[in-house]
Design brief:
12 helices; 312 residues; seven-stranded mixed β-sheet; five-stranded mixed β-sheet; alpha/beta; 19% strand; 12 strands; Rossmann fold
Length: 312
């Protein structure tokens, strides 16, 4: 099932759903004719769209809104915070081409701080599916939840069959004593490649698809950092405020420490190109990730850092 098919099915079965867009119909091209006046295109007016969505939510509707990730998370930030976040309304944000998925676009269209911005809003929930299979397994629960949500939409097709989704729970693909890769969204594809290459080098490798970034699965983060000599955070986001920061916050909250190697963009936007070229130029291919981990020798020389059992 595709994103559009899922949204159409749910909207047709539940009249509370309103589909909205700020003149970005890439994900919903066939929906207008099926929903009639429950499809609203506000034009290039992200702020107006969020304000209207909040008004609809106050009247018992569930608006699913669509816009480019950079404009949705930044141009409409104050409206999301004030109109959806403060009153905790079920405004569902579908964020198109986030992170490296905006490949050929320049810095103005690169959403690399969206996770940081959205998870900073009280009541907002934040999710990043690994691919389309993950996406359609996650969205029914996300849309059914009463809180506002921000979803990094990822409709890329992969051969991986994901496990059922539970709000706030990570998907543990494998566990490993030597290194564990924590990732989300698009980078899951490259993490699979890197993990396989590392296993072929004789390492015990773990891989976790966090998928839910707020609420985040603290138990899994604690277990990974306790049981692996090296924890790797892998994300197409700025270093500040994303997964690396999330892991640091969780560890500090529980009085813990760990050896962590981050893959993220540090104080820079990426060079626009086709996606495979972007990944290679910025050092985010599975091969490059594995090679950098293999070159990070300090974790081979130290035993795993002993930390207390996770406390409820």
């Amino acid at each position: 099932m595709t994103y559009e098919e899922l949204l159409t099915e749910i909207a047709l079965s539940d009249e509370r759903f309103i589909v909205m867009t700020a003149e970005n119909r890439a994900l919903v091209r066939n929906i207008p004719g099926k929903l009639g006046n429950r499809f609203i295109d506000t034009g290039i007016t992200e702020q107006t769209m969020i304000g209207a969505a909040a008004g609809l939510a106050l009247r018992g509707r569930i608006p699913v809104v669509h816009a480019l990730a950079s404009f949705l998370s930044m141009r409409a930030f104050e409206f999301i915070r004030t109109d959806a976040g403060i009153p905790s309304l079920p405004v569902k944000l579908s964020s198109f081409i986030p992170g490296f998925l905006s490949d050929g676009n320049g810095p103005t269209h690169q959403a690399l701080e969206d996770i940081s911005l959205m998870r900073g809003i009280p009541n907002m929930t934040v999710f990043a599916p690994a691919d389309e299979d993950d996406l359609v397994k996650m969205l029914p629960q996300i849309w059914d939840h009463p809180n506002p949500s921000y979803v990094r939409i990822n409709t890329r097709k992969t051969d991986y069959a994901h496990t059922p989704f539970e709000l706030g729970k990570a998907e543990v693909i494998s566990t490993g004593d030597d290194v564990t890769i924590l990732t989300y969204g698009l980078m899951f594809e490259q993490a699979l490649i890197a993990a396989e290459m590392l296993k072929n080098e004789g390492l015990s490798v773990g891989l976790v698809n966090l998928r839910s970034l707020k609420p985040v699965d603290e138990r899994v983060i604690i277990e990974v950092t306790r049981n692996s000599r090296l924890t790797v955070t892998l994300e197409d986001h700025f270093l500040t405020g994303g997964l690396y920061s999330i892991v640091a916050e969780v560890l500090l909250k529980h009085g813990l420490t760990a050896s962590v190697l981050p893959f993220a963009l540090n104080e820079k936007w990426f060079k626009p190109s086709l996606l495979p070229n972007v990944l290679e130029y910025e050092g985010f291919t599975g091969k490059q990730i594995a090679e950098r981990i293999l070159g990070y020798k300090t974790f081979y020389k130290q035993p795993g850092i002993a930390v207390p059992q996770f406390a409820e």
